Amino acid sequence: MSDIQTKTAPRMKINIGISEKNRKAIADELSKVLADSYMLYLKTHNYHWNVTGELFHSLHEQFEHQYTELADAIDEIAERIRALGYRAPGTFKEFHQLTSIEEDTEEPEALEMVRRLALGNEQVLRTAREALKPANEAEDEATIDLLTERLKVHSKTAWMLRSHLE
C-alpha cells in the first residue's frame, strides 16, 4: 500500500463565523426538520400511489407535486446540516427517533389522506419554527433563509390541502 492510501488528511477546523455550540444546536434542530420532512415525503408519495375515488386525478397530481418539492427540500436540509459540520441523519431508524410525524397503520380514504397531509405540513411548520430559534440566535442567515422557505412552502401546502376539506 502506498503512503497516500494509508494516510488520512487532518480534519479541517470549521470557521464560518458560527460557534461550534451554535452549529451543533442548529444541526440538531435541522435534523428534526429533516426527519419530519422525510416522513412527510414518504406519506405523500404513498398517498400519490394509493389514492382512489372521484378525486383521484387531481389528488394524484397534487401529491406528486408535493412529494417532488419535498425531495428537493430534504436534500437542501441535509446539505445544510453537513455545511454546519455535522452528519445528516439518513436511516429509517434515525428518522423514526427524530420525527414527530406518525406513520399510517391503515389505508385511509382520499379525503382522510388530504387531512393527514395537512396535519403533517402543519407539523413540519412547527418543527421548522423551533429550528429558527437557534438559527436566529447564531445569526445564521443561510439556515434562516432555508427555514423561511420551508415555512412559506408548508404554509401554502397546508392551506391548499385544508381547502379540499371545507
TrEMBL record:
Gene3D superfamilies: 1.20.1260.10. It comes from the Bacteria. Residues 28-166 form the Ferritin/DPS domain. InterPro entries: DPS_DNA-bd (IPR002177), DPS_DNA-bd_CS (IPR023188), Ferritin-like (IPR012347), Ferritin-like_SF (IPR009078), Ferritin_DPS_dom (IPR008331). SUPFAM superfamilies: Ferritin-like. Belongs to the Dps family. This is DNA starvation/stationary phase protection protein.
